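DATA SHEET
Item: assembly model
Revision: 1
Owner: S.N.
Input lines:
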Amino acid sequence: MNLTSFSFIIFCILTFTLYFSFPKKYKWIVLSVSSLFFLFYKNVTLSTLLQALIILFVSYFIGLKLEKNKNTKTGKKYLTFGILIILGVLIYLKYTNLFLTTFNHLFNLFNINFQFELVHHNSLIGLSYFSLIMIGYLTDIYRGVTNAEKNIFKCALFMSYFPILNSGPFVKYDQMKESLYKDHKFDFDRLKRGAIRVLWGIFKILVISQRLGIFVDKVYGDLTKFKGVYVVIACLFFTLQLYTNFSGSIDMIMGISEIFDIKLPENFDAPFFSKTITELWRRWHITLGAWLKDYIFYPLLKSDFMQKIGKFCKEKFGKKAYKKVPLYLSMFVMWILIGAWHGGAYTFIIGSGLLQFIYMFLEDNLTPISDKINNKLGINKETFIYRLYQRIRTFLLFSFSMIFFRAESVSKAIKIIKAMFVRNYHVLIGKSLFKAGLNISNFAVLIIALVILFIVELFKNRGKDVRDILDKQNIVFRWIIYFALIFGIIIFGCYGVGYNPADFIYREF
Amino acid sequence: MKNYKNLIKVIIFIFIFCILWHITFKILWGENTALSYFYEEKENTIDVAYVGASNVYVYFNTTLAYNEYGFTTYNIATDSQPFVYIKYLLKEIQKYQKPKLYIIDITRIISNPDYYDENSIRKLIDSMKKSYNQYEALTSVLDYLEMPNEERVNYYFSFLLYHNRWEDFKGKSLTENTNLYKGFQTKNYNFNIKPQKKILWNNDSSIKVTDKNKEVLLDLLEYINDNNLNVLFTIPCRTFNATEMSKLNDATKIINKYDYQVINFNQNDSYIDYSNDLYNPNHLNIYGSTKFTLYFAKYLDNIYNLPDHRNDEKYSSWVEEYNRFKSKYEQKTNNNFEALVKEYKEKYNF
């Protein structure tokens, strides 16, 4: 069910109505039934039922076992068993083709006349999210951070809470349990605030992201016609498209949860105000980064294996290597996993994994050098211009990596990069730019919408919620803004006849 | 108290939303058709309602018929209008008018579902007032066309199409249609002359209308019967191929069984000059339509005892529309329209 579809809107309204109409002790049951309906909507097969049941039963029963074996060797065995099964399901359904493609490449390389046929698995919506969430759940029980859920149906609700199935965020059981099963009373102000956030999310997706997508698809779809400036703009536009699409869907999810009064962690914090790639990843898909740090990076860094490597490097290369080598190795593994999580293809591993690692590695090693140069030249890093330069540099580097993320294959990504180096600056003058899917009127709408987005993000970067600012204004001003937002979406949204449904780029992960 | 205040706020908010919605889509909605202008007519002022497709709205000059005989006819017809719509159109007309006669053009009984495109579905339905009848009409045509469910939503919620029209909006009305004169449409191409070869009507009926179309026709005839409507069916004067003629003959037999008359204008068309009176094989041009109107209006006046409103102030808009049409004719041809009418009346004894 698409987040901006009529069916989803009707589904949400029905769920809200039922949720707030049912007596206290049945509220979580309404949410469970709705979530199961959403999970299996138009996708009830033996395979999808098995996927859900395996992950649920493993999480529930091993969770109960872990409850009694926290931080013990037996517990560790149970945990390993649980993680392996959940990961097995995830890898089988999502990454079989990655392995098969790798084998096929190797067969080609060694002139072996054999190729595996690629397979298509019908996986449940949000599988990549809830399988990692349940691994986190088991690990937290083992570590003693949280207790196991005794009611299997409540456990199922935690696993399948419908708003997060589309595009996250990653949640932890101890953060969610109280608000998920609690009796929430209807609150008009919460409904209003939630609805505004939902509308803002729809605005980002339908007015900005979909419009940017028209230009990006047109340019990337015909690189013989569109080169140079077109490709550079498409590359920048795709980053904005991805951001508005993903953060827009998160806004919708947060808004819906706010109406239920179920607290979810924020997933974005104005990432394009970041001065470094490291900072950007602290502000982009925050919960994924946090999950990987908690369950992959730190355990790996602290593992006996890494300690041994550290000691070995200390002996060979000195004291600095003792810290740096295990750190970079753990980072490398984590970033490759982040890339792989985004999709079972090398484009994702390079775009959202390897390149990000390289950026951070370079940042870590080049920053002291650039600081020295800046000091010698007397450049003040705290000026507006310098900060602006850092932000633009970060945005450009990130956009470059997203070329791989967007491309169908690594060779296509290289073609795109090559196409960028054609000198056709004349495109910027005259009307040539308007030949790539967006006419002058659509460009005008896009620029106005991006300015609005920039203002909202600017407030966010300063720690202010625009809704709080609006609340302080008089009713006439507030309502003008609300109606402008609603009719902005209705009139200028890219939906309906002539547009593809606004699907979510992050949905399939 | 707080809840009470919030409820009032919600009601006012929804009310303002509805007003803004109405204004927005009044500006952005599709081009007005004969049906949208039909709603503006004064209640119970239409004597004859002529329904069908393009063979109605470019054929019968309603303003000329009024000027000659004083009865009011309104063409409620749109491009390639699906035949399924006719029943619902008759229902819609009865909500606002009490015509003494309904004329139904049966050309589209020859068309299969694949003939119709989005334009032919939307032209009528999108200008119809929202009501259960509009819903039924749309559902019937979508069922007839076997439209998949996922595509139907675009028709039920037409703003999904029209919200994009802001791109065309340049300060001028997007909905105004100045080419319509009480349902008679005159665009620039209606003045073109494209000589055609006359094909003699063949009365052999070896090919029947499809079962699907027969079902639609029978349903319409049952409706007319049940509601005691005074109805006349017509086949327009134009070129038809043998299959089409055959199907129309079959439809005529079905209609005759219900004791309704079908006038086939191809069987008595000596006044039509095929080298001068058509702008394409399927449509009369302005000269052909003038002759046809004079011929058919005289027939209607003779047979149906229709009233003459020419001295009634209430019908002044018909005079205004006739004059507006005349100006357009004279502007396009540099000739006097009344002189043309006089010439035809004398030559063909209309």
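QC remark: The CA atoms of residues 191 and 286 of chain B lie 6 Å apart.
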